[in-house]
Amino acid sequence: MPNRNVPDASVPETTTDDLTRAAEDRLYAHYSLPHTERVVRAGDLDVRVVEINPDAAGTPVLLLHGIASVTAAAVPLVAHLGDRRVIALDWPGHGLSGPLVLKRDDDLRAIMVSVIDAVLDAYGLKRVDIVAHSLGGQFALYYVLARAARVRRLVLLGAPGAGFSEVTPVPAMRLLSIPGVGRGILSLPASPAAYAKNSAATLGPGALDGYPDDLAEAGRLASQRPGFAPSVASYFRALITPFRVRANVPVGHAELATITVPTFMVWGDEDVFLTPDRGRASIESIPGAKLLVVKGGHAPWLNQLNETSAAVVGFLDAP
To answer: Strand runs (DSSP E) across the chain, as ranges?
Structure first.
């Protein structure tokens, strides 16, 4: 009988990345979504990209997730978008991408615009529709302001990170922005129960109810990678101080008024980061922007999947 206290050298060790990818694969299989993946080099950054429905025709969708999150959270929505080709990147320091520890003098806008440029170039895409959540929405706003010709339509799901000037950081975000403290908190092991509790606090109560366990498990496992804590803590420091959003982070009303890309927002009425009512001045600054308010929190498609997906498809398909 083998000694269970001695590792068997003939059996390869299962890494966190293997477990993360396995959880993702089960999730894609659950929704019958064919997918491939590759790593794109963006300057000195390694950006992991998943391509869903790779053989589909039409304008591809670029899917952008939020801070400390992963693409897996949006897979139920992707499954409701019909036969669309979806290009989903893991932001540096997130998912299975390489790390990125932002420095004080880094140009956040320029870095994220260059990441998106690199992904679109790697896939030979001249123009895409963007569907973005939270911080992904903030970076999408940066991108349409810099590269309007490359975006056909923009969908923002939930408050776009710190992209609107009305955002006031919640206490947990302020804590994570404190040097050393944020990295320490993000380095703590997270059980499935703890991860679910944290998700409920940010996405809204019940946001994960009724979905496959692998949706949350893929995010939990990715958060245990060594590069996650230092990277994500640096994002929080780049975005906010312990007191407020940094001055150069939000897109002001005057700049929002220059957006020419057709824009549609789906927003939960109880979004913990910014409610639609409080963000209305920024929303109305974007010319022709349309808004759908649904019952729910920061991830409106998880609370109201059918209503959200039908509205997004209708917007993307409209003449």
So the answer is: 35-42, 45-52, 61-64, 86-89, 128-133, 151-157, 263-268, 290-294
Comparing CA positions, the residue from 245, 242, 300 lying closest to residue 271 is 300
- What is the reported pTM? 0.95
Angle at 70 between CA 250 and CA 208, to 5 degrees: 105
pLDDT score for 193: 92
DSSP 283-302: HHHSTT-EEEEESSSS-HHH
Q: What architecture is the 16-317 domain classified under in CATH?
A: 3-Layer(aba) Sandwich (3.40)
Ranges of each domain in the chain = 16-317
At 39-61, the pLDDT tens digits run 999 999 999 999 999 999 999 99
Give per-residue pLDDT as tens, 202-230.
Answer: 998 899 999 999 999 999 999 999 999 99
Q: Judge whether 119 and 71 are in contact, CB under 8 Å.
A: no
